[in-house]
Target: DNA phosphorothioation-associated putative methyltransferase
Amino acid sequence: MQPAPKYLENRARTAIGRAEPSRPLKCILADGLLTPGIRLFDYGCGRGDDLRHLSMLGFEASGWDPVHRPDHEHRSAPVVTIGYVVNVIENPAERQEALRRAWALAEQVLVVSARLTLEAKALRERTDYEDGCLTSRGTFQKFFEQQELRQWIDRTLEANAVPAAPGVFYVFRDEQARTHFLASRYRRRLAAPRLTKSAELFARHEAVLAPLMEFVGERGRLPQDDELANTAELAQVFGSIRKAFRVVLYATDEADWEAVREERGRDLSIYLALSRFEGRPPFGKLPLALQRDVKAFFGNYKQACTEADTLLYSLGQPGTVEEACQNSAVGKLTPTALYIHESALPILSPVLRLYEGCARGYLGRVDGANIIKMHRGEPKISYLNYPDFDNDPHPPLAESLTVHLQTFRVKTRSFGASSNRPILHRKELFISADHPLHAKFSRLTRIEESKGLFDDTSRIGLEEGWNETLAQKGVYLKGHRLLSARG
Ligand SMILES: C[S@@+](CC[C@H](N)C(=O)[O-])C[C@H]1O[C@@H](n2cnc3c(N)ncnc32)[C@H](O)[C@@H]1O
Model:
């Protein structure tokens, strides 16, 4: 169906110039959906800024737009994007048609993005029109709720979309690829254990053993013969994969590998627990590697699902989240919430990982969020953005996004324009003890405490009170050093 020319002309005005990759493109890159040799096609590419970013990164990408690139051909590709297009189309039938056309081109995954109602408040002037509104520029915008967008995609494509970020969804062509993506989302990124002893045999064959160590570090179990490229070489040198790994165990700390194994088992439990919300796949539909993980960690799928359900059930019991917050080995505990830095997510207890996982399963990745607030009194998770957390000794809060896990209402707040923003203190509490900046942050906290800067906690939470406190004590901050203002 061809849209009326007037609307097309106005829709073209919605295409903005982008200095940085769009949110969906950032998700695609962060989630590793594009690897060298995988092509992308951008359906409704506007001025083509995402295509330029991709070509700078060395990816092959092309796109079509009815106004800005009408002569470019529609091409099928492993990854197809349709970014912020469906929300500018006022005719519901044409909106669905655009989505279906993009889907028809997607060989592996379609990435759909649209604007959300929580962005609508930024528009000052608007008039209701059809199921959306007309902006002061004469363009149409349909703002979606996160769940509404997902359901609309699912209905239109008869698919099962996966939230990648607020307003961004992945639609996988292959169910196993979808499951693989979901399971890997809850897999922690831990480094493989380091060498402890010098072992002559190990040292001689380190290069041959490296892929094996990487595999076990990644999945927490030994590979089967078809899961490693150099199985034959390992068998030739050591006799078997199992014997090869014994050499690795000799040169490294066995307890570290055991910890990796336990953690991978927990990752799998968390994935299986969360998969309950959208219909857990039957065992035979899991990717082969995941089927093997299940057997290695739980013996069978029934046992794996029982353990996952026990974990999920415990989350709904009164006091479970509260107890987990109180006992958490990491995070800053306040009367209302536990706050942690995103880097500490992997070391949270399974209950808290599941608690946060419920929000992530609904929203996907929240761009820029680096502190996660797990509310204690009610089931809510907030994603907070404190720019320059590493370098600013007391970073101010720029924006927050909160999702209520019963109503699934999403709220955002921006503090950008305020001159008196909330700030962070005691940054070491948000990160793990082995974080490279832990010692630096702790040192500053000790000095600030010794100078009495935290004595009046009612004043120091906001920028103005904190700056006044520093001035009263005659000190100022240079990076993470506290200096005397009196010379
Ligand atoms: C908000 S812009 C988004 C452009 C680009 N994808 C981006 O994210 O920067 C919306 C684009 O949708 C295009 N468009 C409008 N109707 C369309 C349709 N039926 N099919 C494909 N694209 C369409 C417009 O020409 C416009 O460039």
Summary: The pocket of S-adenosylmethionine is lined by residues 3, 11-12, 14-15, 18, 22, 43-46, 65-68, 83-85, 88-89, 94, 98 (CB under 6 Å). The chain has five domains: 5-173, 183-187+260-316, 200-252, 328-427, 434-484. DSSP finds 18 helices and 17 strands in the chain. The longest strand covers residues 106-113.
